[in-house]
Design a protein that fits this description.
Layout (H helix, E strand, L loop, with lengths): L3 H10 L1 H13 L5 H4 L3 H8 L3 H22 L8 H21 L6 H27 L4 H26 L5 H22 L25 H5 L2 H22 L1 H8 L3 H5 L2 H22 L10 H12 L3 H18 L2 H10 L4 H28 L4 H26 L4
Helix pairs in contact: 2-7, 2-8, 2-9, 5-7, 5-18, 6-7, 6-9, 7-8, 7-18, 8-14, 11-18, 11-19, 14-16, 15-16, 15-19
């Protein structure tokens, strides 16, 4: 592991590029579920929506953004971050303003689409692609540091904006969010006056994947490893989103005060950040092949704890275990695509994975909510979800074990 002096030197030499990644992931917060859900009560009251109607709108908007991501994500292979990033942040600013000034319930579908596409989708996507492409030997470290941005957003923005709602109308808070996203444009441009890309330096910066090749998206889709990874990519986004989406219902079922559960969320963030850095160090040392088959097992144990346990002590255990996998999930998959498929077409390939991830955030709340309505309780569902993650771990181990022989 790096000593303090070496780490300080690393951060100094790479500060502008790491800060650019962190800025993009932080601003992606405005399109993340943890931020949008802060306004769920106000949105439902303003537009007279039931829980099911709002959930359906969210699912449709998010699903549409996942579909567009399949095409748009490949733009990161054609344009540099300093060209694409400002456009994405401008779109995110417009999306926030759209939420602020929308007057119709049907208008929430395009608003959610814009927030999810420019926020959770493209802002985080171009940041992760940039880190995977710009850094080779320290890819895991760079991904971990850049992902601190969204962790900071998760820890600070909901609390700040909930507190601000006591003084400002919720629509004005979206105007403020738009202003913050817009201010990110000149800052990002300044950070990337000199962009660290393979085109900016030498072809030797391009890393090769399996069989010593640069895989195209079409070739990746024809390889079984990609499809064996899809359940592992889908799972965390689908079911962690469902966990947060149904937090009020879960607290009611368990007999907890909602505030008791919410008070554990900073622990989730803290554990996630620790796991994120540990995973970054581990993949630089061992590669993704040694970590990918196992990193979802803590999440399996976490959902099992929520499924079977009723005490707040078990909630502490469950949140901590979810945080371990969530933190590792911030860095490992992005590095995985670069390591196994090369970096020449990493934007196009990772855009598929990002689309799967975004689709998962659309499926999770809707699926679990429908099952609750059909009589399958949230505790029983969480136990089944734990079994799902055990299966994905086994499938990932099988796929990676075969593929790593060709690295």
């Amino acid at each position: 592991m790096l000593n303090t002096g070496a780490l300080r030197d690393y951060l100094r030499r790479n500060a502008r590029w790491l800060m650019a990644g962190g800025l993009l992931t932080f601003l992606s917060s405005f399109g993340q579920t943890f931020f949008i859900s802060v306004f769920a009560g106000e949105i439902r009251e303003t537009f007279d929506l039931s829980h099911g109607a709002w959930g359906g709108i969210y699912t449709i908007g998010t699903g549409l953004s996942a579909a567009v991501m399949v095409w748009a994500g490949s733009l990161t292979d054609q344009f540099r971050v300093r060209q694409l990033g400002p456009f994405i942040l401008l779109g995110l600013s417009v999306a926030c303003l759209s939420m602020a000034f929308n007057q119709w319930a049907w208008g929430l579908v395009p608003v959610v689409f814009l927030l999810r596409f420019f926020g959770q989708g493209m802002s985080s996507h171009i940041a992760m692609v940039a880190m995977a492409r710009w850094f080779t030997r320290t890819r895991g470290r760079a991904l971990s540091i850049a992902t601190v941005g969204v962790a900071m957003g998760e820890a600070a923005l909901p609390l700040l904006f909930v507190s601000a709602m006591a003084f400002l109308d919720w629509r004005w808070l979206w105007v403020i969010a738009a202003g913050i996203a817009f201010l990110g444009i000149p800052l990002l441009s300044r950070l990337l006056t000199e962009e660290r890309t393979p085109q900016s330096f030498a072809e030797s910066y391009i890393a090769f994947g399996m069989e010593g090749r640069q895989w195209t998206r079409k070739q990746a889709l024809s390889h079984p490893l990609f499809w064996m990874m899809v359940p592992a990519i889908l799972g965390p986004s689908a079911f962690v989103t469902a966990f947060f989406f149904h937090q009020v219902h879960l607290a009611e079922v368990k007999g907890w005060e909602h505030v008791e559960l919410v008070a554990l969320f900073p622990l989730y963030t803290a554990v996630g950040m620790g796991s994120m850095f540990a995973a970054g160090w581990g993949l630089d040392k061992f590669g993704t092949a040694g970590l990918m088959p196992f990193y979802q097992l803590p999440m399996a144990a976490g959902f099992l704890a929520f499924g079977l346990g009723d005490s707040t002590a078990m909630a502490v255990v469950g949140v901590s275990l979810l945080g371990i996998t969530a933190g590792a999930n911030s860095t490992l998959p992005a590095a995985f695509w670069a390591e196994f498929y090369g970096t020449a077409h990493i934007g196009a390939i990772k855009s598929l994975a990002t689309a799967v991830m975004v689709l998962g955030t659309a499926i999770g709340p809707g699926l679990t909510g429908a099952l609750i309505d059909l009589g399958w309780g949230i505790q029983g569902q969480f136990t089944a979800i734990a079994f799902y993650f055990c299966l994905t771990a086994g499938l990932t181990w099988l796929g990676v074990s075969r593929a790593k022989q060709t690295l």
